[in-house]
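User: Sequence recovery, please. Input:
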Protein backbone atom coordinates (compact mmCIF):
# COMPACT_ATOMS: atom_id res chain seq x y z
CA UNK A 1 0.00 0.00 0.00
CA UNK A 2 2.85 2.35 0.79
CA UNK A 3 4.16 1.89 -2.76
CA UNK A 4 0.77 2.77 -4.20
CA UNK A 5 0.41 5.91 -2.12
CA UNK A 6 3.91 7.25 -2.64
CA UNK A 7 3.04 8.72 -6.03
CA UNK A 8 -0.04 10.55 -4.84
CA UNK A 9 0.54 14.34 -4.72
CA UNK A 10 -2.29 14.75 -2.22
CA UNK A 11 -1.12 12.28 0.41
CA UNK A 12 2.65 12.67 0.11
CA UNK A 13 4.07 14.16 3.27
CA UNK A 14 1.01 13.42 5.37
CA UNK A 15 1.68 9.69 5.91
CA UNK A 16 3.28 8.36 9.10
CA UNK A 17 7.06 8.10 9.02
CA UNK A 18 6.92 4.32 9.36
CA UNK A 19 5.03 4.07 6.02
CA UNK A 20 7.08 6.48 3.91
CA UNK A 21 10.74 7.04 4.76
CA UNK A 22 12.50 9.89 2.97
CA UNK A 23 16.26 10.37 3.33
CA UNK A 24 17.19 13.57 5.25
CA UNK A 25 18.62 16.40 3.19
CA UNK A 26 21.92 18.11 3.93
CA UNK A 27 20.26 21.12 5.66
CA UNK A 28 18.34 18.68 7.85
CA UNK A 29 21.61 17.04 8.86
CA UNK A 30 23.34 20.35 9.51
CA UNK A 31 20.58 21.87 11.65
CA UNK A 32 19.58 18.67 13.40
CA UNK A 33 21.48 19.77 16.51
CA UNK A 34 18.90 22.55 17.00
CA UNK A 35 16.20 19.97 17.78
CA UNK A 36 15.80 18.93 21.42
CA UNK A 37 18.01 15.88 22.00
CA UNK A 38 16.46 12.76 23.50
CA UNK A 39 18.91 11.38 26.12
CA UNK A 40 19.23 7.90 24.60
CA UNK A 41 19.82 9.38 21.13
CA UNK A 42 22.52 11.90 22.12
CA UNK A 43 25.54 9.63 21.45
CA UNK A 44 24.26 8.78 17.97
CA UNK A 45 23.52 12.41 17.16
CA UNK A 46 26.95 13.42 18.47
CA UNK A 47 28.63 10.85 16.23
CA UNK A 48 26.62 12.06 13.25
CA UNK A 49 27.57 15.68 13.94
CA UNK A 50 31.25 14.79 14.31
CA UNK A 51 31.21 12.84 11.05
CA UNK A 52 29.43 15.71 9.31
CA UNK A 53 32.01 18.15 10.72
CA UNK A 54 34.86 16.10 9.26
CA UNK A 55 33.25 15.78 5.85
CA UNK A 56 31.89 19.32 5.34
CA UNK A 57 34.27 22.24 4.72
CA UNK A 58 33.80 25.36 6.84
CA UNK A 59 31.10 23.71 8.95
CA UNK A 60 33.25 24.37 12.03
CA UNK A 61 32.14 28.03 11.98
CA UNK A 62 28.52 27.00 12.46
CA UNK A 63 29.31 24.29 14.97
CA UNK A 64 31.01 26.81 17.27
CA UNK A 65 27.44 27.25 18.55
CA UNK A 66 26.56 23.55 18.76
CA UNK A 67 24.61 22.44 21.82
CA UNK A 68 27.02 19.51 22.44
CA UNK A 69 30.32 20.37 24.11
CA UNK A 70 32.15 17.53 22.33
CA UNK A 71 31.14 18.95 18.97
CA UNK A 72 32.05 22.52 19.98
CA UNK A 73 35.47 21.30 21.07
CA UNK A 74 36.00 19.53 17.74
CA UNK A 75 34.84 22.62 15.85
CA UNK A 76 37.28 24.84 17.74
CA UNK A 77 40.11 22.42 17.06
CA UNK A 78 39.30 22.37 13.35
CA UNK A 79 39.39 26.17 13.03
CA UNK A 80 42.29 27.45 10.94
CA UNK A 81 41.32 31.11 10.56
CA UNK A 82 38.72 33.68 11.60
CA UNK A 83 37.58 35.39 8.38
CA UNK A 84 35.37 38.01 10.02
CA UNK A 85 35.03 39.92 13.31
CA UNK A 86 31.91 37.89 14.09
CA UNK A 87 33.72 34.56 14.08
CA UNK A 88 36.74 36.06 15.88
CA UNK A 89 34.35 37.12 18.64
CA UNK A 90 32.63 33.73 18.57
CA UNK A 91 35.95 31.96 19.10
CA UNK A 92 36.86 34.33 21.92
CA UNK A 93 33.52 33.65 23.61
CA UNK A 94 34.48 29.97 23.81
CA UNK A 95 37.10 31.04 26.39
CA UNK A 96 34.19 31.43 28.79
CA UNK A 97 32.41 28.25 27.70
CA UNK A 98 30.76 26.14 30.41
CA UNK A 99 32.75 23.07 29.31
CA UNK A 100 36.40 23.08 30.50
CA UNK A 101 37.64 21.13 27.47
CA UNK A 102 36.12 23.73 25.12
CA UNK A 103 37.79 26.54 27.08
CA UNK A 104 41.15 24.77 26.82
CA UNK A 105 40.75 24.21 23.08
CA UNK A 106 39.72 27.86 22.59
CA UNK A 107 42.83 29.10 24.37
CA UNK A 108 45.02 26.99 22.11
CA UNK A 109 43.14 28.11 18.99
CA UNK A 110 43.44 31.80 19.91
CA UNK A 111 47.19 31.44 20.43
CA UNK A 112 47.44 29.70 17.05
CA UNK A 113 45.10 31.93 15.00
CA UNK A 114 45.19 35.38 16.59
CA UNK A 115 48.98 35.50 16.80
CA UNK A 116 49.30 36.59 13.17
CA UNK A 117 45.62 37.33 12.49
CA UNK A 118 44.34 40.18 10.37
CA UNK A 119 44.64 43.39 12.44
CA UNK A 120 41.45 45.09 11.13
CA UNK A 121 39.41 41.95 11.86
CA UNK A 122 40.79 41.70 15.41
CA UNK A 123 40.31 45.43 16.00
CA UNK A 124 36.65 45.24 14.94
CA UNK A 125 36.15 42.22 17.21
CA UNK A 126 37.88 44.09 20.05
CA UNK A 127 35.12 46.71 20.00
CA UNK A 128 32.76 43.97 21.19
CA UNK A 129 35.15 41.94 23.34
CA UNK A 130 37.05 44.52 25.39
CA UNK A 131 34.06 45.59 27.46
CA UNK A 132 33.03 41.99 28.19
CA UNK A 133 36.18 40.03 28.95
CA UNK A 134 36.70 41.58 32.43
CA UNK A 135 33.45 39.96 33.57
CA UNK A 136 34.24 36.43 32.36
CA UNK A 137 34.61 34.35 35.48
CA UNK A 138 34.90 30.76 34.26
CA UNK A 139 38.46 31.05 32.95
CA UNK A 140 40.12 34.36 33.98
CA UNK A 141 43.65 33.07 33.34
CA UNK A 142 42.92 32.31 29.68
CA UNK A 143 41.73 35.86 29.04
CA UNK A 144 45.39 36.95 29.10
CA UNK A 145 45.88 35.01 25.86
CA UNK A 146 43.20 37.14 24.24
CA UNK A 147 44.60 40.33 25.77
CA UNK A 148 48.03 39.61 24.30
CA UNK A 149 46.50 39.31 20.84
CA UNK A 150 44.40 42.48 21.16
CA UNK A 151 47.36 44.58 22.37
CA UNK A 152 49.56 43.90 19.36
CA UNK A 153 50.88 47.18 17.97
CA UNK A 154 49.12 46.80 14.60
CA UNK A 155 45.84 45.84 16.30
CA UNK A 156 46.10 48.86 18.62
CA UNK A 157 46.65 51.15 15.62
CA UNK A 158 43.59 49.71 13.85
CA UNK A 159 41.54 49.99 17.05
CA UNK A 160 42.64 53.60 17.54
CA UNK A 161 41.37 54.47 14.05
CA UNK A 162 37.95 53.08 14.92
CA UNK A 163 37.83 54.85 18.27
CA UNK A 164 38.62 58.13 16.54
CA UNK A 165 35.93 57.84 13.89
CA UNK A 166 33.03 55.93 15.45
CA UNK A 167 30.35 57.70 17.47
CA UNK A 168 28.35 54.80 18.96
CA UNK A 169 28.17 53.51 22.51
CA UNK A 170 29.97 50.28 21.62
CA UNK A 171 33.12 52.24 20.78
CA UNK A 172 32.88 54.21 24.04
CA UNK A 173 32.64 51.02 26.11
CA UNK A 174 35.61 49.60 24.21
CA UNK A 175 37.60 52.79 24.79
CA UNK A 176 36.99 52.71 28.56
CA UNK A 177 38.08 49.08 28.69
CA UNK A 178 41.10 49.55 26.40
CA UNK A 179 42.36 52.46 28.48
CA UNK A 180 42.80 50.11 31.43
CA UNK A 181 45.72 48.58 29.49
CA UNK A 182 49.00 50.51 29.12
CA UNK A 183 48.96 49.73 25.38
CA UNK A 184 46.77 52.79 24.73
CA UNK A 185 48.62 55.26 26.98
CA UNK A 186 50.68 56.73 24.15
CA UNK A 187 47.54 57.43 22.10
CA UNK A 188 45.37 59.17 24.71
CA UNK A 189 46.37 62.66 23.59
CA UNK A 190 45.46 61.74 20.00
CA UNK A 191 42.03 60.53 21.15
CA UNK A 192 41.54 63.64 23.28
CA UNK A 193 42.20 66.03 20.43
CA UNK A 194 41.10 64.18 17.27
CA UNK A 195 38.19 61.86 18.15
CA UNK A 196 34.95 62.69 16.32
CA UNK A 197 32.79 61.80 19.30
CA UNK A 198 32.76 64.49 22.03
CA UNK A 199 32.22 61.77 24.64
CA UNK A 200 35.39 59.99 23.48
CA UNK A 201 37.37 63.23 23.78
CA UNK A 202 35.86 63.82 27.22
CA UNK A 203 36.87 60.36 28.46
CA UNK A 204 40.44 60.78 27.18
CA UNK A 205 40.82 64.32 28.55
CA UNK A 206 39.39 63.27 31.91
CA UNK A 207 42.08 60.59 32.23
CA UNK A 208 44.89 62.90 31.13
CA UNK A 209 43.87 65.79 33.39
CA UNK A 210 43.34 63.61 36.46
CA UNK A 211 46.44 61.51 35.83
CA UNK A 212 44.56 58.24 36.20
CA UNK A 213 42.35 55.90 34.21
CA UNK A 214 39.27 54.57 35.90
CA UNK A 215 36.48 52.26 34.85
CA UNK A 216 33.27 51.50 36.70
CA UNK A 217 33.07 47.86 37.72
CA UNK A 218 29.83 47.77 39.66
CA UNK A 219 28.17 49.12 42.81
CA UNK A 220 28.49 48.72 46.55
CA UNK A 221 26.19 49.51 49.45
CA UNK A 222 26.87 52.65 51.45
CA UNK A 223 24.84 52.42 54.60
CA UNK A 224 22.75 55.36 55.79
CA UNK A 225 20.96 53.64 58.67
CA UNK A 226 21.43 49.91 59.29
CA UNK A 227 18.59 49.79 61.80
CA UNK A 228 16.09 50.77 59.09
CA UNK A 229 17.99 49.04 56.26
CA UNK A 230 18.59 52.33 54.48
CA UNK A 231 21.49 52.52 52.05
CA UNK A 232 22.52 54.06 48.74
CA UNK A 233 24.22 52.40 45.79
CA UNK A 234 27.70 53.82 45.24
CA UNK A 235 29.68 52.98 42.08
CA UNK A 236 32.99 51.12 42.40
CA UNK A 237 35.93 51.71 40.06
CA UNK A 238 39.14 50.11 38.88
CA UNK A 239 41.91 52.72 38.79
CA UNK A 240 45.33 52.94 37.18
CA UNK A 241 47.75 55.86 37.29
CA UNK A 242 49.14 57.16 34.00
CA UNK A 243 51.90 59.53 33.00
CA UNK A 244 50.82 62.77 31.35
CA UNK A 245 52.41 63.47 27.93
CA UNK A 246 52.28 67.25 28.58
CA UNK A 247 52.30 69.48 31.68
CA UNK A 248 48.95 69.77 33.38
CA UNK A 249 48.58 73.45 32.51
CA UNK A 250 49.07 72.75 28.78
CA UNK A 251 46.51 69.95 28.89
CA UNK A 252 43.99 72.26 30.56
CA UNK A 253 44.61 74.79 27.79
CA UNK A 254 43.89 72.17 25.12
CA UNK A 255 40.70 71.07 26.88
CA UNK A 256 39.60 74.70 27.27
CA UNK A 257 39.77 75.12 23.48
CA UNK A 258 37.60 72.08 22.73
CA UNK A 259 34.36 72.71 20.85
CA UNK A 260 32.39 70.54 23.29
CA UNK A 261 31.09 72.13 26.48
CA UNK A 262 31.44 68.78 28.28
CA UNK A 263 35.20 68.80 27.69
CA UNK A 264 35.50 72.43 28.76
CA UNK A 265 33.61 71.62 31.98
CA UNK A 266 36.29 69.05 32.78
CA UNK A 267 38.92 71.74 32.25
CA UNK A 268 36.98 73.97 34.68
CA UNK A 269 36.76 71.17 37.26
CA UNK A 270 40.52 70.59 37.16
CA UNK A 271 41.12 74.33 37.43
CA UNK A 272 38.93 74.42 40.55
CA UNK A 273 40.84 71.51 42.09
CA UNK A 274 44.31 72.89 41.28
CA UNK A 275 43.57 76.63 41.48
CA UNK A 276 46.22 77.26 44.17
CA UNK A 277 48.89 74.99 42.73
CA UNK A 278 49.01 75.87 39.03
CA UNK A 279 51.27 78.75 38.02
CA UNK A 280 49.95 81.62 35.91
CA UNK A 281 46.32 80.54 35.54
CA UNK A 282 45.13 84.05 34.64
CA UNK A 283 45.13 83.37 30.83
CA UNK A 284 43.12 80.17 31.36
CA UNK A 285 40.61 81.98 33.56
CA UNK A 286 40.27 84.78 31.02
CA UNK A 287 39.70 82.22 28.27
CA UNK A 288 36.86 80.49 30.13
CA UNK A 289 35.36 83.43 32.03
CA UNK A 290 32.99 84.29 29.17
CA UNK A 291 32.43 80.74 27.91
CA UNK A 292 29.19 79.91 26.09
CA UNK A 293 28.38 77.27 28.71
CA UNK A 294 26.89 78.54 31.96
CA UNK A 295 28.35 75.56 33.83
CA UNK A 296 31.87 76.54 32.76
CA UNK A 297 31.30 80.19 33.73
CA UNK A 298 30.08 79.14 37.18
CA UNK A 299 33.30 77.23 37.82
CA UNK A 300 35.44 80.19 36.85
CA UNK A 301 33.27 82.52 38.96
CA UNK A 302 33.92 80.29 41.96
CA UNK A 303 37.69 80.52 41.38
CA UNK A 304 37.43 84.31 41.06
CA UNK A 305 35.57 84.56 44.37
CA UNK A 306 37.89 82.15 46.14
CA UNK A 307 41.08 83.86 44.97
CA UNK A 308 39.69 87.37 45.32
CA UNK A 309 39.74 88.08 41.58
CA UNK A 310 36.18 89.38 41.24
CA UNK A 311 37.18 93.04 41.48
CA UNK A 312 40.05 92.61 39.07
CA UNK A 313 37.83 90.76 36.57
CA UNK A 314 35.20 93.46 36.76
CA UNK A 315 37.75 96.22 36.20
CA UNK A 316 39.31 94.42 33.25
CA UNK A 317 42.73 94.09 34.87
CA UNK A 318 44.90 91.28 33.50
CA UNK A 319 47.03 90.79 36.61
CA UNK A 320 45.61 88.87 39.58
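Assistant: Recovered sequence (320 residues):
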Amino acid sequence: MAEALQGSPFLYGYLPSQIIQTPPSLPDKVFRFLNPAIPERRPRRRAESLDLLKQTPRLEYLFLFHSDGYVREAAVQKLAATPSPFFASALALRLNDWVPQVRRAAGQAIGRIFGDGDAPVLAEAALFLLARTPFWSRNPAAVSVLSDALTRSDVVEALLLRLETRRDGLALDAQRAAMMSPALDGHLLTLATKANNPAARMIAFDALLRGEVRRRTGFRRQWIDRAFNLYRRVPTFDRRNIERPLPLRDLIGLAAQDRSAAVRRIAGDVLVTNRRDLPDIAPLLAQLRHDRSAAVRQRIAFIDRDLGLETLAASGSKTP
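Confidence is low (pLDDT under 50) at residues 1-20.
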